[in-house]
Amino acid sequence: MLARLTDGTRIVIREIRPTDKRMLARGVELLSEETRRRRFLTAKPRLTRGELRYLTEVDGERHFALVAVLADQLDHVVGVARFVKLPGEGATADAAIVVGDPWQRRGLGRRLALLLADAARERGVRRFSATMLSDNPAAIALMRTLAARLEGGGHAAGIREVAVELAA
Q1: 114 lies in which domain range?
Q2: Strand 89-99 vs strand 127-133: parallel, antiparallel, or unpaired?
Q3: Which residue in 35, 13, 168 sits closest to 105, CA to CA?
Q4: Distant-in-sequence, close-in-space partners of 138: CB < 8 Å, separation ≥ 6
Q5: Which residues contact 150 (CB under 8 A, 6 or more apart)?
Q6: Distance between CA 97 and CA 81 in Å, rounded?
C-alpha cells in the first residue's frame, strides 16, 4: 500500500517478510536510545538473531506484522506495527508499534495503528493489550485512537498496562 505522511513523504506499508531481518536490525540501530527504551521497555542497542527471526518470521494469523518503508528507498524501514494473539485468548492480542525518530509526529503511527486494528479484526481479534512506559503519552494517545473503550490496567515501577476494545 502506497501512502503519504502529513509532510508528503511517500511510504509503502506491507506485511513483514523473513527477508526483512537485515533491514529491521538496521532500523532498530538507527532509533534513538529513548525510542528504543520506549519500544522495548529497556536499553536495547540491537536485536539478536533469535529476536530477528521471531520478529520477521510471522505466521500472519497468530502473529501479524506490518512494516513501513520509504517509497524511494525500499530497504529503509521507518515504522513497524505488530500484534501477537495471547495464548488461550484468540480474541485478545498484544500490540506494539514503533516509528523511527525522523518520522514521528507525521501521522505514521496512527496509520499503522489503524491498519493493524483492521488486520486484527479480520483475524478475530477484538481487543489489544499493551505494556508501555508510563512516560510515553504518545503510546497512550495512539491506543485511544483505536479504542471503543480504553481500560487502564496495572501501573507500577514506571510501566503501564492498557487494554482497548477495538472500535468497529
Answers
A1: 2-166
A2: parallel
A3: 35
A4: 104, 109
A5: 143, 144, 162, 163, 164
A6: 4
Is the confidence at residue 137, as pLDDT, over 60? Answer: yes
Question: Residue 5 and residue 109: Cα distance in Å, rounded?
Answer: 10
> Is a pLDDT exceeding 80 seen at residue 55?
yes
Phi-psi region of 8 (alpha: psi -120 to 50; beta: other; left: phi over 0): left
* pLDDT given for residue 144 in this prediction: 75
The CATH code of the domain that includes 116 is 3.40.630.30
- Angle of CA points 44, 47, 52, to nearest 5°: 145
Q: How many domains does the chain have?
A: 1
Cα Dmax for the chain: 43
Quote the cell numbers at residue 94. 498484544
Q: From its phi and psi, is residue 124 left (phi > 0), alpha (psi between -120 and 50) or beta?
A: left
Query: Which amino acid would we find at residue 85?
Result: K
Q: If pLDDT is split at 50, 70 and 90, which confidence band does 50 have? A: very high
